[in-house]
Design brief:
The protein is an alpha/beta fold. The protein has two domains: 244 residues, Type I PLP-dependent aspartate aminotransferase-like (Major domain) (Aspartate Aminotransferase, domain 2), CATH 3.40.640; 126 residues, Alpha-Beta Complex (Aspartate Aminotransferase, domain 1). It is built from 17 helices and ten strands. The strands form two sheets. Strands 1-7-6-5-4-2-3 form a seven-stranded mixed β-sheet, with helices on both faces. Strands 8-9-10 form a three-stranded antiparallel β-sheet, covered by helices on one side. The protein is globular. The structure holds pyridoxal-5'-phosphate. The site of pyridoxal-5'-phosphate (PLP) has 12 residues, from helix 4. The site of pyridoxal-5'-phosphate has 12 residues, from helix 4.
């Protein structure tokens, strides 16, 4: 396990200023998202030395070098930098789509479908067919095959793209399933796009599983190339787990990327002197990627600590996210959040979803667990919680919601939809 340097040491008052030292401290206890990470002094000093050319003219060597680096890492011909994951997803989808009628298959929780302001309809004039995974966790080729819109029936908008997301709510999509879906897509001449906002987390997990070295470019390349092989294109966020201040990258064929640049221009997404932000992302890729395994270990610790208390965990913790349900021990989510936020050194969570990022400290995780333990103890002392750790009333409600008649139902699927980020 990689040991995280103390975040406090990463911004100094002399270089970053006291306000930013304080921001970093608050962020080290903020579980709302991995987008919240604070650029470090070293990262911004590195950015200072970046080239300062105009990337819309293709004349910024630092940006070009980052694009080449990510293309090579992912085994694709070319790459294109843009400001956000929403933009790279939407640009990729727009580039895949030619002319309506056309449709896209996604998981019903997919960010591209649910969280990008209806961008697919707006920019690509496409219909999204949202599918519900029959196993409740991830789509399979068996889920997708019968839903493909093929043939010449004029009532139907043909499937032109399958868009998967990995990780989704922190869960890893099994690669053997991705391969099967890729084969299915190929058979029907349908494109495959990956929203790989957090594919870095999948790669970090795989590197650890195989005993490879996350600091070695070759090991990263081996794993990322395999993960992305079934996809024609992928969008990889730099500003989530990696901790770049801005940026996301599309990878694909040279021809695809050239066309995507056209759309990036039309979206107003070209960046002139892009070098500084590309350099911050490049720094993050080199220095923060190896820390992802630690964020996963801390997420596991949070899961285990909460589980020991009887707290419900709503989704498998494969990487850096923990969806917790304190209602299982009779604590309301609102009360738990309020109590964590009221600690002398506050801990912030974004409802059920707790995201461990590279600046979260082990102390914050332990204090999180200790705070919930304290609340549980108080509840028990007040007689509100049964001694087996289950709040009768809340548990009955939750059980009814999750599994009426002991079966997984639409209610569970709706809950998972609510958890889709
Ligand atoms: C899975 C996923 N894809 C895409 C995005 C969009 O990224 P951005 O916020 O950079 O637009 C997000 C943002 O949280 C995300 O979680």
């Amino acid at each position: 396990m990689t040991i995280l340097p103390k975040p406090a040491a990463e911004i100094t008052a002399e270089i970053g200023g006291q306000d930013n030292v304080d921001t970093l401290h608050r962020t080290s206890r903020d579980f709302r998202s991995d987008t919240l990470t604070v650029p470090t002094d070293a990262q911004l000093l590195y950015a200072l030395k970046a080239s300062r050319g105009d990337d819309v003219y293709g004349e910024d060597p630092t940006t070009t070098a980052l694009e080449k680096r990510v293309a090579k890492l992912t085994g694709k011909e070319a790459a294109m930098f843009a400001v956000s994951g929403t933009m790279t997803n939407q640009l990729a989808i727009r580039t895949h789509m030619k002319q309506p009628p056309h449709s896209i298959i996604t998981d019903y929780r997919a960010h591209v479908h649910k969280m990008e302001a209806g961008g697919i309809a707006m920019f690509s004039q496409a219909t999204t067919h949202q599918l519900f995974p029959s196993n409740g966790l991830h789509l399979t080729a068996e889920d997708i095959e019968p839903q493909l819109q093929l043939g010449t029936n004029i009532h139907i908008s043909p499937t032109k793209l399958i868009c998967l997301e990995n990780t989704l709510s922190g869960m890893i999509l099994p690669q053997e399933e991705v391969v099967k879906i890729g084969e299915l897509a190929k058979k029907h001449d349908i494109g495959m796009h990956l929203d790989g906002a957090r594919i870095w987390n999948v790669a970090a997990s795989e590197i650890e599983k195989r005993g490879l070295d996350a600091t070695k470019e070759q090991d990263r390349q081996t794993v990322l190339t395999e993960l992305l092989a079934p996809f024609d294109t992928a969008s990889l966020c730099l500003s989530k787990g990696l901790g770049a201040p801005i940026g996301s990258i599309i990878v694909g064929t040279r021809e695809f990327i050239e066309r995507a640049k056209w759309f990036r221009k039309a979206f107003g997404g070209g960046i002139r002197q892009c070098g500084g932000i590309a350099a911050s992302a490049d720094y993050a890729l080199t220095h923060h990627f190896p820390r992802l395994a630690t964020t996963h270990a801390l997420a596991k610790r949070l899961e285990e600590g909460l589980k020991e208390l009887g707290v419900g965990i709503a989704a498998p913790v494969d990487t850096n996210m923990v969806f917790f349900q304190p209602q299982e021990i009779g604590l309301s989510l609102d009360a738990t959040m309020a109590r964590l936020a009221a600690l002398p050194d506050p801990i912030i969570v974004g409802r059920e979803r707790c995201v461990v990022h590279h600046q979260i400290t082990p102390e914050a995780v332990e204090e999180f667990i200790a705070c919930v333990a304290e609340m549980k103890k108080e509840k028990q002392a007040n007689g509100d919680i049964q001694t087996n750790g289950v709040g009768k009333e809340e548990k009955a409600k939750l059980d009814h919601y999750n599994k009426p008649n002991g079966k997984t139902t639409d209610a569970v699927l709706r809950k998972q939809a609510a958890l889709g980020y």
